[in-house]
Amino acid sequence: MLPPISYWRRSLAAAMPRLRVRRIADLARDRSGNVLIEAALVFPILVALLLGVSEFSEAFTASRRVAAAAHTAADLVARSTSVTAVDLSSIKAMVDETIKPFPTTGLGLVITSVLADKDNATTVVWSEALGAGVSAYGTGAAIGVPAGLTFPNGSLVLAEIKYPFKSTLSALIVSSVPLQAKAYQVPRYSTQVVKK
User: Fold this and answer.
1) What is the pLDDT of residue 173?
2) d(CA 57, CA 50)
3) pLDDT value for 28
4) What is the pLDDT of residue 20?
5) H-type helices in the chain, by residue range?
6) Model pTM greater than 0.85?
């Protein structure tokens, strides 16, 4: 026969304080949850690091594409003896393709023919602005060129690109980062590229 319920209640009541004291002491020595706590502390740092590397690599790729696009534009104009507005629009379309897969809606391109006089002072012969956020230089305006790129009575083709880079997480971090690139080329088949 089983003991009465009152026996079980007294036995349980007597054992509970010992269980509570022993369990609290065991919790102080227990290390089974440390990995979970450490993971919870480290996980946000790893996610931030992953997103930061991703954003940086995307911005670096966009910067390289902008530089390549500027060199492409300058090179295409320098290969010609003369250009028209249609030619320059076609070059802008090629520059847009160079920037892709990034969106090209904010891309601005300025192509300028620079002439150096006998004293090597540089002025604008012609300038064409294509795209958003850019403006052409005035004809005859003085323009700064890095030292050593021009010779007296020589000319250069200057291509400048301005591009507002919007990263994948731009809504969370910043709106856009302005990227710029300049490229200089000496005309290959003539002393100066003429705009018709």
Assistant:
1) 67
2) 11
3) 63
4) 56
5) 5-29, 34-78, 85-99
6) no
Residue 17: is the preceding peptide bond cis (ω within 30°)? no
Nearest to 185 by CA among 88, 94, 74: 74
Between CA 95 and CA 107 the distance in angstroms is: 9
Predicted pLDDT at 33: 73
SS3 content of the chain, % helix, strand, coil (to 5): 45, 20, 35
Q: What is the pLDDT of residue 34?
A: 76
- Reading the block at residue 95, the tokens are 């520059």
Beta-bridge partners for 164: 178
Closest CA to 150 of 189, 121, 181, 112: 121
Residues with pLDDT less than 70, the chain: 1-31, 171, 173-174
- Distances in Å between the Cα of 182 and the Cα atoms of 14, 34, 66 are 86, 54, 9
Say how many CA atoms lie within 13 Å of 59 toward its Cβ: 18
Please give the single-letter amino acid code of residue 188: R
CA–chain centroid gap for 150, Å, is 31
Give dist(CA 41, CA 168) in Å, integer. Answer: 26
Record the tokens describing residue 47, joined without a space: 């996610």
How many Cβ atoms from other residues are within 10 Å of residue 83's Cβ?
Answer: 22
